[in-house]
Amino acid sequence: MQNLDGVLEDLSLALANAPDRWAAARPTTPRPPPLKRRGSVGDSIRDGADLLAASSDTPRLDAELLMGYALGLSRSDMLLRAMRDDAPATFDPLVERRAAHEPVAYITGSAEFYGLELKVTPAVLIPRGDSETLIAAARDYFATRKAPQRILDLGTGSGALLLAALSQWPEAEGVGLDASMPALRVAQCNATTLGLAERTRFLRRSWRRDGWRRDLGQFDLVLCNPPYVEDDAPLDPCVRDHEPGSALFAGAEGLDDYRILLPQIAHLLTKDAIAIFEIGATQQDAVSGIARNQGLAPRFCNDLAKRPRAMIVSQSF
């Protein structure tokens, strides 16, 4: 498998060179008041959680994760053996960044997905638990079938979906496509760190450009978490102001990328293959209609909140 230095760059994405269309609309977030830190790790976590209560739904967890990062310890190790230690001075600015709505994952540079520790930067979406529904759906499908040998991840970002899938099927090889070179660098780094680089190939391609399927061949499993947020959707500031808009927004209805991909997906599938798309919680009917118009019979899997999150399509259903 080739490394990132050898990726195909013949299909560059206009988005990669365009200014962030949301930058001008981003409000300036007032700086939070300085943290009044107490002496111990435990006291400082409590103070940090108090400061974060106004800006986070999980203030205590955020404070614990940031303290663990400042100490260079896992959260569990910190809770077990460091709560009475002196708190490091580096904790205060981390909490202040979080209070200004910067995501914890970007502050610490890492996020967990399906049991994998992944590097993340502002060049990629932060992997979320909802997306694990796609891996669970794939495992269920292949539990009674021959394991997939070739896996494709469309819009790979950090590589979360592809690398999680490869960790489940040790004989499989995978290809990850993304229009963003910075995102591909993150994905390649994660593949290397996880010992999966020899089974992965990352290519810079945009499905918004003609010829993006050239030389890809067919796959037993295609995974895709496309942009699916409406352009004017209200978002939490930690998402709106920090995560890449090109990986979030997909037109007035949030359906632009499904309309591009679903008419082409059959060309990428082997006879008994499946493609699994992440969808928004209210998009089941709309995305199902797009799929059915292409002669596909979609099936849906719910996330842990019982909302439709994964759409499975196949030529053999």
Write a structural description.
- The protein is about 30% helix and about 15% strand.
- The radius of gyration is 21 Å and the shape is globular.
- By secondary structure, it is an alpha/beta fold.
- The model is unreliable at about 1-30 (pLDDT under 50).
- It has helices at about 15, 40-50, 60-70, 75-80, 90-100, 105-110, 130-140, 160-170, 180-195, 235-240, 255-260, 285-295, and strands at about 110-115, 115-120, 150-155, 175-180, 200-205, 220-225, 270-280, 300, 310-315.
- The longest helix is centred in the N-terminal third of the chain and has 13 residues, at about 60-70.
- It has 2 domains: about 40-100, Ubiquitin-associated (UBA) domain (Helicase, Ruva Protein, domain 3); about 125-315, 3-Layer(aba) Sandwich (Rossmann fold).
- A 7-stranded mixed β-sheet has the order 5-4-3-6-7-9-8, sandwiched between helices. Strands 1-2 form a two-stranded antiparallel sheet.
- Belongs to the protein N5-glutamine methyltransferase family. PrmC subfamily.
Share of residues in strands:
15-25%
Mean pLDDT reading: 90
Global structural class: alpha/beta
The CATH homologous superfamily name of the largest domain equals Vaccinia Virus protein VP39
The end-to-end distance, rounded to whole angstroms, is 32 Å
User: What's the gyration radius in Å?
Assistant: 21 Å
CATH architecture of the largest domain: 3-Layer(aba) Sandwich
Largest sheet: 7 strands, mixed
SSE string, helix = H, strand = E? Answer: HHHHHHEEHEHEHEEHHEHEE
Q: How many strands?
A: 9
Q: What helical percentage do the residues reach?
A: 25-40%
Strand order of the largest sheet: 5-4-3-6-7-9-8
Total count of domains: 2
Low-confidence stretches: 1-28
CATH fold type of the largest domain: Rossmann fold
CATH class wording of the largest domain: Alpha Beta
How does the overall form come out from the CA principal axes?
globular
Task: Provide a count of the helices.
Answer: 12
GO molecular function: nucleic acid binding; peptide chain release factor N(5)-glutamine methyltransferase activity
Family: Belongs to the protein N5-glutamine methyltransferase family. PrmC subfamily.
InterPro entries: DNA_methylase_N6_adenine_CS, HemK-like, N5-glutamine_MTase, PrmC_N, RF_methyltr_PrmC, SAM-dependent_MTases_sf, Small_mtfrase_dom
Region (Disordered): 22-43
